[in-house]
Amino acid sequence: MATATAPLGIYLAVPFCRSKCSFCNFASQVYAPGIYAEYAALLAREIALTAAATGSGGCDRRRVDTIYWGGGTPSLLPPPALAAILGVLGEHFQFEPDCEHTMEVAPGTLTPELLDLLPRLTPPVNRVSLGVQSFQDEETRAVGRLHRRSTVVDDIARLRAAGIANFNLDLIAGLPHQTPASWRESLGLALEQEPPHLSVYMLEVDDDSRLGHELLAGGVRYHAHHVPDDEAIADAYELAWERLAAAGRPGYEISNFAQPGAESRHNLKYWTRRPYLGFGVDAHSLVDAPLPARYANPDTLAAFSEPLRQGRLPRGAAAPVSARAAAEEFLFLGLRLARGLDREAIAAAAAPVPGYAEWLEPRFQAQLAAGLLEEHEGRIVLTPRGRLLSNRVFAEFLA
Fold first, then answer.
1. Using omega within 30 degrees of 0 as the cis cutoff, is the peptide bond preceding 107 cis?
2. CB 189, CB 149: distance < 8 Å
3. Is 381 strand, coil or helix?
4. Is pLDDT of 57 > 60?
5. What is the DSSP string of 192-249?
6. Which residue of 54, 103, 157, 268 is surrounded by the most CB atoms within 10 Å?
7. Using an 8 Å Cβ cutoff, are 199 and 168 in contact?
8. In 3-state terms, what secondary structure has residue 199?
9. What digits encode the pLDDT tens for the residues 185-237?
10. Measured between alpha carbons, how far is 21 from 140 in angstroms, rounded to an integer?
11. Cα 23 from Cα 213, distance rounded (Å)
């Protein structure tokens, strides 16, 4: 964990979407646009109350070097509301000159007014993450996306014209109707756009999403019977690792690929346990003062909004991060990175927990023997098979 003088990351959650994707298990929903401005005002109030609650010894006037708007679809907020939220942030935080400022954008939501505003904000939005998911119109339609391939290509051209050349493209391996040929074509079309960064996720199957529930039930709604099998999804993911690396965008984290120097600085805070503050519905935080602690906001709009309307923060006290929890987080987050963890750093993380290093070693050896981890010059990293089974690997290091 960084010291209390380390720059913070700021996460701003916007739980609104034009349509709810069938695979989505995030805390986002379709709401009438009339609520957008009210939510922005509540978000601004949460920021001010947080700064007042922590005082100068906590976050107030702390330096900020990354801002990330996630969702949901942050680009649905009215441009004046976006500017107002950043104005409140500016009253309580100090933005670093090179602040990385990212906004997630659904293709087709970049209005001329928004596109004109993004580079003029303080700090300017200098990075955009486009939720493309696929360059195949049949696949995007099947999961409820509203854009077409041509929408994405047009949005990228407009972003570049506005001076925002640093962008990410999200892709999902395993969408309904996806075939090896269509996946290869999606990867090729994505690379034709010359993105500095790409994220590739394997379709998650859990009952927190409509598609996941239908898959687990063996049904056919939401095109569930056209979802590729696990082996095909794994093959697609491995192909992405090979093809993106060959195109100068190697994987630096389980799901993330970038040209050298274009890695997401904000997301790296999560994986390296740097401090960040989250605002909005279902936002999480890791604070470092006075001691390392985590807290999370409610995951529904109603539970988030009501306390703020009454002038109270929507969350309880932060939960201290124990030495054991910190060591476990260090391991399973650090192993997500392609560079892995070196033995000296592992020993330092384990040292505050009596007996933890001795408890760990046989588990490392078992994962090495199983071919899920490998060791090179004192660094332990996931193997290609280990990336596919990463949750199984991480579970071995949790009490």
1. no
2. yes
3. strand
4. no
5. HT--SEEEEEEPP--TTSHHHHHHHHT--GGGGGGSPPHHHHHHHHHHHHHHHHHTT-
6. 103
7. yes
8. strand
9. 999 999 999 999 999 999 887 777 777 777 777 888 878 788 889 899 999 99
10. 9
11. 9
Classify residue 323 by its DSSP letter.
Answer: H
Whole-structure pTM value: 0.94
- The amino acid occupying position 270 is Y
Task: Return the ∠ at Cα 6 (arms to 344 and 260), rounded to 5°.
Answer: 65
Structure tokens given for 230: 């696990």
Report residue 143's pLDDT band, with 50, 70 and 90 as the boundaries.
confident
Q: Which two tokens stand for residue 8?
A: 């913070």
Contact 14, 39 (CB under 8 A): yes
Query: Do 351 and 357 contact (CB within 8 A), yes or no?
Result: yes
DSSP letter at 29? B
Q: Record the tokens describing residue 220, joined without a space.
A: 């056919």
User: Residue 264, CB half-sphere, CA atoms under 13 Å: how many?
Assistant: 30
At 12, is the pLDDT very low, low, confident or very high (cuts 50, 70, 90)? very high
Nearest to 137 by CA among 151, 148, 146: 148
Question: What are the chain's domains?
Answer: 8-272 (3.80.30.20), 322-399 (1.10.10.920)
- Residue found under tokens 């987080």: 329
Percent of the chain with pLDDT over 90: 78
CA–CA gap between residue 261 and residue 284 (Å, rounded)? 26
C-alpha–C-alpha distance, residues 251 and 242, integer Å: 9
Q: What is the pLDDT of residues 278-326, one digit of tens each?
A: 999 999 999 987 789 999 999 999 999 999 999 999 998 889 999 999 9
Contacts of residue 191, Cβ cutoff 8 Å, sequence gap at least 6:
243, 244, 247, 249
What's 72's DSSP letter? S
- Amino acid 322 reads S
- Indicate the length of the chain as a whole number: 399
For 364, residues 6+ apart whose C-beta sits below 8 A from its C-beta are: 373, 380
d(C-alpha 327, C-alpha 348), whole Å: 9
Token representation of residue 289? 């003062």
Helix (H) or strand (E) holding 50: helix 36-54
Return phi, psi of residue 168, to 5°: -115, 145
